[in-house]
Amino acid sequence: MLARPPIAPLRPFVRLLWAGFTPPALARPGREHVLPTGHMHLALRWGGPPLQLLPAGDAPHGAQAWSPGPAVVGGARAGYYAKQAGTHGWSVGAQLEPGAAGALLRTSAADLAERHTPLADVCGPGAVAELMERLQAQSDPEACLRVLETWLLARMARTVRGLHPAIAAALASLHTGAPVQQAVQASGLSHRHLIARFRDATGLAPKQHARVLRLQLALAALQAPAPQPAGIAADAGFADQAHFTREFRALTGVTPIDWLRAAPAQRNHVRTG
C-alpha cells in the first residue's frame, strides 16, 4: 500500500492519500473494526468486491451486511464501524481535513456524518463514472493517486475559503487537550453557534470530536514499547482505568487488552475475526 500527503494545493483539505492492490492469492478476508479519527474519507475499489459493511457488535439481531458501492464517502464518526477487510482488488482513497466537505464535495460534513454515502449521490454519477474509468486505466498506485489528485483539484471550488476562524480556533484548542468550554471561549461564538458551525465543518460536535482526540492520544501511547494502560489512562485525560476501559470499548468495540493482543499494523484498523 502506497500512502503519501497530497500535492500542495490540496493540503488544506486532504490529509493523506493511499492506493494499493491486493492479489487474490494474498487476500485474507475477515472482520475489521475501523476506529474513529475525526476525519472524513473517500474510498474507491475495483477489481474485487466493493466495500462490505458489517453489523456492529450492538446491532439488532438479524441485521444484515450491506455495500454502499465501489465508490463511497465515509463521514466522520463518533465510534467505530465494522467492515469486511483483506479482500482482493484495487483500493484508492483520501483522508479529508475539516472543511473539505464544503470545498471539495460542496456539501456539509454534518449531512455525511456517521454513515457511508455513495460518492455518486454527492458528486453525480457522471463525474464518479469518469473517475472510476480513469483509475481503472492505471497500472500502478502512484498513477492512481495522480488521477485522484487531478479529480479533487477539479472539484475544488474556484473561490475556496479555508475553515471559519472560529472553527480553526476551536479545533486548535481541542488539539491541545483543552476542555470543550475552553474551546468555545477560544472560538468567540456562543456554544450553540459553535456546535452548528463545527458540525458543518467536521461532521461531529465539539464534545464528540474531543472524545475521538482523546482516544487517538491513547492509541498512540498503546503503540509505544511496553505500554502501561494505567499510566495511559491518566495521561490521555481519563478519570481512572475503569473510565478508560469503558470509553475505549464504546468507541472501538474492543478493550485495550484486546487491541494490544490484535497488534494492528495500522492502529485504527483492528482485525476482530
TrEMBL record:
Pfam families: DUF6597, HTH_18
Keyword DNA-binding: yes
MF terms (GO), sorted A to Z: DNA-binding transcription factor activity; sequence-specific DNA binding
Keyword Disulfide bond recorded: no
Keywords of this entry: DNA-binding, Transcription, Transcription regulation
Domain HTH araC/xylS-type as annotated: residue spans: 164-262
Top-level taxonomic group: Bacteria
Name of protein: AraC-like DNA-binding protein
